[in-house]
Structures
1.
Amino acid sequence: MIEKINQLLAEIETLQAANAEELEALRIKYLSKKGIINELMADFRNVPAEQKKEVGMRLNELKSKAQARIAALKDAFESQDTECDDIDLTRTAYPVGLGTRHPLTLVKNEIIDIFARMGFNISEGPEVEDDLHVYTKLNFAADHPARDMQDTFFVEVNDEDVTRNIILRSHTSSVQVRSMEHAQPPIRIICPGRVYRNEAISYRAHCFFHQVEGLYVDKNVSFADLKQVLLMFAQEMFGSDTRIRLRPSYFPFTEPSAEMDISCNICGGKGCPFCKHTGWVEILGCGMVDPNVLDACGIDSKVYSGYALGMGIERIANLKYRVSDLRLFSENDTRFLREFEAAL
Ligand code: DAH
């Protein structure tokens, strides 16, 4: 019996299987109920008593070695990935096309960065707004002609009472209102976002575009503070030799109000077709927050003052990249978008 066991032990060491069927055949041959090892176990009762101890130990050894060998063959077999045999791991990878950032995102991020360095935080608000936040609290009288100027989109709501009240925001100044409603000064925020106006789409107008709004409210905020921030912004954005000028203007929510021009960054102020030979190009609106707006938003206008500013991101992008047709920004033509690959 011992001899038989030794012979089987040697045999087991050399077992091989080329596929799952061969492996199963081996398992059946050695380890199944009617397999060789179980038959030996059955013969065990015929072993003379004085040999029982040794034979028993050898039999157990045989069984565990057979199990281990078959398990090892199975493992080797399963880890072998037959489908990957023909992959050439040394071949150069296919180039993966990286996306580009949209030019408006690039410009928006640059504006945010500049203002963030001056201590402004980002604030965002809803695009679907109500009249209160877009106009009324910003000091637009109910019959103010500026409401028409903004070419507002109205959102149809089933309830007749609110039909003319739910609108798509026509400027990001609504975020000023929401921020002031929810916080007391000091408030120093910039609000980037998309705005909507009912305009015919052409190379120079679109029914949606993007703005960045700025607001600073605190004690003793003055027009001089506004001017300094505007100069810093213009020089960071368009170069350190950029000059600014402020022209008096009108917005319902600021008093006094101004529009800011920068020295034309294309001709350096000498005059060219882009600046219509004036040497200046307009880039934003601004002013001191009207006390009525502060009061409407729950901020005491006798204690606090503030300035606000607002600019179109497309306008700044045009100045930076000279995009001649506004529609290119929303058409997703990859030939156009790819031009900004290097600007990442
Ligand atoms: N909301 C104005 C617009 O859409 C832009 C603007 C002008 C924003 C003056 C301001 C501001 O905060 O002070 O045309």
2.
Amino acid sequence: MKQVTIDTFPSRKRSGPPITMVTAYDAPTARLVTQAGIDVALVGDSLGMVVQGMENTLSVTVDEMIYHTRMVARGLEGPLLVTDMPFMSYTVSKEEALRNAGRLIKEGGCHAVKLEGGTEIAPVVRYLSGAMVPVMGHIGMKPMNVHSMGGFKVQGRDAASAEAILNDARALSEAGVFALVLEAIPANLARTISQTVPVPTFGIGAGPHTDGQVLVFHDLVGWTSAPLPRFARAFGNVADVARVALAAFRDSVADGSFPAPGESYPDGPVTLPKLDRLKTKRKG
Ligand code: KIV
């Protein structure tokens, strides 16, 4: 697959086809994402919930993001690799933000970073972009704001909140983001933003009018055990396939049919009695 870069996107925004982005947290998933011809692999901080089993994404660290990015980078060939900057890794100071973004790129191997936040993070986005760090924005429902939002809630439903999100999109675009994720906002607001900003938009729970769509891998392959949010679709049922395989393994071990002769190595020259003699000799 031809390497996707941030330069791939402007023409795709103009004339399609819509851009696809999927989360990946390890090398085998990255290989599947590559084989499927997905445009962007996102090492999302959603790994805190999806992989680590946490209630939200707040505890994820830069070191953990680097660890997972490295794994994804090893399995990926072609898609753009974007990594989330985790909570508090870019808001303390812009120097620290640059240091952390630099680590994700140099140690992790991603091509770009994604930051959640609106107008308030425009200065840090400008600073990172000025230091040649490609930045993807993330507005609307920002999972890092789970406590200040009072839960994971759809945003932009009233006029004031919709206006604020549109302003976020404008401010981030002017600050230099190369793309924007729009999460959990009404479809008409996502359409307005997509028509207003020059950069491509990726929707997740933002309706059909964005320039691309993004989903969490585990949700889309049917691996997530919790009920899916309204906007996610399971296009497969990997969990059921895994359950069937696990039960078959358990039963085959129980009835002795696994491992079969073809799944065992042929006997070698050393027989058990000889081994026993060896042990006795050593003891003596
Ligand atoms: O962390 C994540 O997986 C994300 C996507 C949901 C866009 O930010």
